[in-house]
Amino acid sequence: MPELCLTHEYAERTVAFDVTGAPDVPPQYLCDDPTAVPPMRPAQVRAAYQSRSGAPWVLDTVHIRGRYAPGDPASRWVDRPGGGLWLYPSSPHYPDHPKPPWTAALACALAVPAPEVAAGPVRATVTSDLAKRTRFFTLDGLDEISHWPMPAPLRPDKVRVTYLNSGDTAWGLDEIRFEGPYVATGKAPGPNQNRGRRSYYPASLRDAPAWVRDLADAHRVPDPLPAGQRP
Fold it and tell me: Omega into 156 within 30° of 0, i.e. cis?
């Protein structure tokens, strides 16, 4: 079985929460004209995380969503969804960005993904937790994949392995994609050799060459990513 050499990896994770106890968001934080809309009552939060090179999750964005809460029960804004409030904790300009005071504590509490989060009176409970992780490798060797209708086999020199995760469980293999030149068996690739790709999924691996199945089995479950820590 050929050896893979990891060059880099990248992961994204989106966690959705139901929220209780959050104060209404004043109009001046929702749009440029504070008289244009009433306050918004937060009900959901969507937190997006990123990880590079196997590093701990880093909170990238926070989207606070809810419905408008006008003082007049006859207002046309009653029960209408608001556009939401975006926070960018990983931005260097985040400390200077105007935002309701309580949101800073919420962003701090969300810095590490968790099933439940508390920040003062605000309580957030996870309703959805989805993640995708992609790892990139180089591959050396003469192993081939017959790639109909190409007249020559694919000789991979790059491999991309993608995993999915739901509910903070173990990573599951989603796709393994091979990339390389089309080279006749026993020949060396030329400088301008045509290149191609071939993807396999868990259900289609049974039709793959034996060396591809062995490689997929060896990389089916990657090490978990570290959770990180709150600032």
Answer: no
